[in-house]
Amino acid sequence: SGQAAQAVRMFQELAEARNGPAQFNLSVLYARGNGVPQSDEWALYWAWRAQFSGVSKAKTLTSYLARGATEELQEKVQKRLRNDLIAEINQGNKDAMVALGRVYLELTKPSDPEQALVWFTIAAALQMPKAHIWRDVVARKLDRDTRVKAQERAASLYQQWCDGHGAAFPNLCSYNS
To answer: How many helices (H) and strands (E) does the chain have?
Structure first.
């Protein structure tokens, strides 16, 4: 209703607080250039974040935006997503683990299923919804040695995460520091 700039500010704040519908709406505003300069990069970034947040219609938007994006732009968005999700995990956000696994599986070129398995394994150990499904599907596609290597790395990172954030999640961390 003629207040796109206000909508951008509102959606930006909510999107950064991990609100999926706000992430989707912010993506649309960036794609259209409503209330903010048009940006394929930020539109694609927020579309992926919305998809990772479970917004079903974000999958269509992500596919549409990715089709029009250069390989360089897609790589830039992938790196930004990876770095932002790692920062969130380091701050204690366990929800970011499945999303990070998906970045390695769906966005990284070439795909890195071993790294994806690491994050899906940790997320499953922390009882994140559907993480065990992602873990099991990816694990079946890897040879035994690669799978074991990923599991060992996951166990180490799980312990590190629990050492740093386990006090906030005592029912989820089996390791005690």
So the answer is: 9, 0
